[in-house]
Design goal:
This protein is mainly beta. Helix content is about 0%, strand content about 60%. It has strands at about 20-25, 35-50, 55-65, 65-75, 80-90, 100-105, 110-115, 120-130, 135-145, 150-160. The protein has a 10-stranded antiparallel β-barrel with strand order 1-2-3-4-5-6-7-8-9-10. The protein is globular. The mean pLDDT is about 95. This is DUF1579 domain-containing protein.
Amino acid sequence: MLQTNAPGAPGDFDFMIGQWSVQHRRLKDILNGGDEWIEFKGESSTLNTLGGFGNVEDNHLHFPEGSVRAKAIRSYNERTGQWSIWWLDGRNPGVMDTPVVGEFQDGVGRFYADEEYHGEAIKVRFIWDATDPEQPTWAQAFSKDGGESWETNWEMRFTRL
């Protein structure tokens, strides 16, 4: 697969291209005031697509109850200067999550979406921190109050293989 970026392609997610070991930390009871975290391992591999205007991340998550495959699909909109990120989970292969949309500033990307969680309207936030591109982090948070407050419910720490 051709991995070179086309002229003008953003380099925001170039740090993710390659193979990774992932340490996951996920909140057990989301949006209920819980503070118990579940930790598990995973692997991911990211390939450039669309000449650098997109990429696809293949994930293998080893939840305590069993392993799951999933994909993150990202594309860049030159007109808006923003990325869209979709999540496709092997446990529900006929549905892609609502994309989070946002951009990077100084090595940190912030992405947002309006979504539902257990029938309740929420906001979703992803934060990609690539200030150390050899050990980037990702965090997901939900808000029930329109973004006034956020509960981080999933964190990932990547180590390059």
